What does this fold into?
Amino acid sequence: MIPQQYAGVGVAVVTPFKKNKEVDFDALENLIQYLLAQGVDYLVALGTTSESPCLTASERNQILEVFKKQVQGRVPLVLGLGGNNTQAVIDAIQQTNLLDVSGLLLVTPYYNKPSQEGLYRHFEAIANICPIDIILYNVPGRTGVNMNAATTLKLAHDFRNIVAVKEASGNLEQMMQIIKDKPAYFEVISGDDALVLPQIAAGLNGVISVAANVLPGVFSKMVHLAMEGKFAEARTIHLDLMDFYQLLFVEGNPAGAKCALAELDIIQNELRLPLIPMSEENAEKMQDEIRRIENRYSLK
It folds into this structure.
């Protein structure tokens, strides 16, 4: 059995802000410890859920150092560093202190809609200089381009440091084609909290989750049960969380997660423009849902 470093539950960690919109580093430390204490398998720093496009280079460097200090090698630490300018991504990798970082999560180039050959060459150029693991991230609903199974598989077979793909296309047939023809070491990771249970049944290795920011223990239990083949038990939890999943993304990400974490008194409900907090109507629904889940499960 080849060890799967990115199996189970990875958390795309949000960035807490203060009322004045500065990064709340104390709250970030508390959030990281909250996640680690409840059994998540690894953390993703500065993914798109972190509002990374709205962070300065200095803030990103400080946030990464907070993660390193808090994690201290207890779980793998993945760093989001993707972009739509190949050379800029290469420059960022070469200029970032990657000590204690296990891998990079690299989203497909967004907006400029490269061809499949363009996608291949983008990741080829990065793989040729990257000293650590690469997790590809395919999320066509946000980037405007789908990286198809053939391109993912070619990258997986051609570059040993490309070790996984976070698949958020919602196309289960595409995912299963990757699973069928991938190298043994290559992992296929879900990017959809509400779909992870059936995706694990199809052979995915786990999920990089937004929901686990809020419910790390409950969500991890569901995923781990599914990965152990205990689908009846996992399904009970999964179906019980369906309303929560819907509320989590109804007004975009990470507005739902921040509203829920504020209800749990872990961070403040602050985002940076152009993102804004949930509407009052949906915030009340989220607060009611969190209270319901708190009454059913132990969240802290």
